[in-house]
Design a protein that fits this description.
The protein is mainly β. The protein contains 6 helices and 36 strands.
Length: 550
């Protein structure tokens, strides 16, 4: 990683920004000091995904954004035939602890005693530092295992191996309880001093869209967070997640300045893309023709909808992902090689459209008509993704026979949410609206609650349907609804009562939908078929009974 500092902000503005970050952290970190945090390599991330709010620059749909006028020139600089390469995978067998990709740690139960001070090379652009004195304070919840165990830090070696000369050595940490992200660049744990060292460090509150101060770096050269741009195994191979809903991190060999959303430059190579530039897989590229693997197609679709963000200097068109031993590079590498730089276009540099707040667009109830006592499902829909903290939709029912919750929350990043609709039994039809309200907009859907229909004869069945003369059979009548108070009388008849006798009526008990009756047969000299009939009102049902000779 190239580190060239271009500091245009005054020292005072940097100090103010850093103290705001510190105060935000301390005010929400009041946790009892007795607990000891848990740390997991590649642990589960807090839901819902993606990371950061839905309107964060990593999570925006860029499929319709304008193409930069110099798009082809930038692609030519990279090299039109340059193939994509997945900069992630499992173990690298060429070294003892070598790995592909960037690992991350998930911690929980963090207390003050878990926080470590980190001493920085670029301390005046790092978090966890008193910017008046340059002195670091306990700030980063670094897993203690990272000092001596492999695979916690990029490259694979433990923290006590000094590779600051020749490796990026990123250490990414997620506080799952608070949804905080800590990222360190070029880390080393000095066992003789019992101190952590790093090139730079950054803190991101993933509940917000807070950007680094202009001209500041992070753990990445562009001043951006790293983790939200990584290709992660859990997203690619989770069948529940049909799409990856964020941009991907990409490197190029040389850059020239920076544009939004980046905050830091790391080069001034003429013709090169700036940090923060976005590349997008052209819509004309049919991903199904490039790879038959549905999971690789999912990655490519993300490149078309969310694009790639230039975040560091490195190898051209290297897409960064997590370290995970489940990756199969025999699948990933060939798929990525089917794409070249010329399959991409550069979005207008620094493009930052105003993202309109999501509004309520509709409410629906399914089914829209039902019998009292049954349930329905309601759904509210927004015009866009739910904001940070979700969108709380007020609900009400103008149907006296139907009830709904007082509100439902559309989660951050989602565009819809469902809620239950319950109804009670009614003696007459009730018609009324189920309504939803959000930010001054109200939408309604009509719900019809009908009374239980009068029970009617539905079916007649016999068992067995073939008997020897003299043996009995059992008939069963079935109603469309429970029998009313005092029961429901069904008339019965037989086409040959001398051979198969049935009672003249049978009563279905109150609240029941079925009842049985006996059929008595007599001996026959040859096989015959008798029709048994049941009727109620204008509805009749019949069934055949075969009586055979003994």
């Amino acid at each position: 990683m190239i580190r060239q500092s271009f500091r245009y902000l005054s020292k005072q503005s940097k100090i103010i920004s850093a103290w705001v970050t510190l105060l935000t952290f301390l005010m929400s970190s009041a946790v009892p000091a007795a607990a000891v945090m848990n740390a997991t390599q590649g642990g589960a991330l807090a839901q819902p995904l993606p990371l950061f709010p839905a309107d964060n620059w990593w999570n925006l749909d860029v499929s319709s954004w304008p193409v930069d006028v110099n798009s082809q020139s930038y692609v030519n600089f990279i090299g039109v035939s340059r193939q994509l390469h997945p900069d992630f995978g499992g173990r690298d067998a060429s070294t003892q602890y070598g790995i592909y990709g960037i690992p991350y740690a998930v911690v929980a139960g963090v207390t003050d005693v878990d926080l470590k001070a980190v001493h920085f090379q670029y301390w005046d652009e790092s978090d966890g530092v008193n910017l008046n004195t340059g002195v670091s304070f306990p700030f980063y919840p670094i897993p203690p295992q990272a000092t001596v165990e492999p695979y916690w830090i990029e490259g694979g070696n433990p923290g006590n191996i000094d590779e600051r000369c020749c490796a990026d050595r990123h250490l990414l940490i997620v506080d799952r309880d608070r949804n905080y992200l800590y990222e360190l660049y070029n880390v080393f744990y000095d066992t003789t001093q019992a101190k952590w060292h790093a090139g730079s460090g950054a803190f991101f509150d993933m509940n917000t869209n807070n950007r680094r101060p202009d001209t500041w770096t992070s753990a990445d050269a562009a001043g951006l967070a790293i983790l939200p741009g990584l290709v992660r195994y859990d997203e690619v191979y989770d069948p529940v997640l049909t799409e990856i809903r964020h941009a991907l991190r990409v490197t190029v060999r040389a850059t020239n300045g920076y544009v939004y959303p980046a905050s830091h430059r790391a080069g001034s190579t003429a013709g090169g893309l700036p940090m923060g530039a976005r590349l997008r897989l052209k819509p004309s590229v049919d991903v199904t023709q490039r790879t038959s693997n549905p999971n690789m197609q999912k990655i490519f679709r993300a490149m078309q909808k969310y694009g790639l963000i230039v975040a560091d200097n490195g190898s051209d068109m290297y897409i960064t992902g997590t370290h995970d031993t489940r990756w199969n590079n025999d699948i990933i590498n060939p798929a990525f090689r089917t794409l070249t730089a010329n399959d991409f276009e550069v979005i207008q540099l620094g493009y930052n459209p105003t993202v309109s707040a999501a509004t309520l667009t509709s409410i629906s109830v399914n089914p829209s008509a039902l019998i009292g006592g049954q349930s329905a499902a309601g759904t509210v829909n927004l015009t866009g993704a739910g904001p940070a903290g979700g969108a709380t939709i007020d609900l009400s029912s103008a149907n006296a026979a139907a009830g709904v919750p007082s509100s439902i929350t559309v989660p951050v990043g989602a565009t819809s949410a469902s809620f239950p609709v319950t109804t009670i039994s009614v003696s007459s039809t009730n018609i009324g609206n189920i309504s939803a309200g959000y930010n001054g907009i109200t939408k309604s859907a009509t719900l019809i609650v009908n009374p239980q229909p009068a029970a009617a004869l539905s079916a007649l069945s016999l068992y067995p349907t073939t008997v020897r003369g003299g043996n009995g059979s059992v008939g069963t009548v079935t109603l469309t609804a429970p029998a009313p108070t005092s029961g429901l009388v069904v008339n019965l008849s037989s086409s040959n009562s001398g051979k198969a006798a049935v009672p003249s009526t049978v009563t279905v008990p109150t609240g029941s939908t079925t009842t049985a009756f006996k059929i008595a047969t007599t001996t026959v000299s040859r096989k015959i078929v008798v029709t048994i009939s049941a009727s109620h009102g204008v509805i009749s049902k019949s069934a055949s009974l075969a009586i055979s000779k003994r």
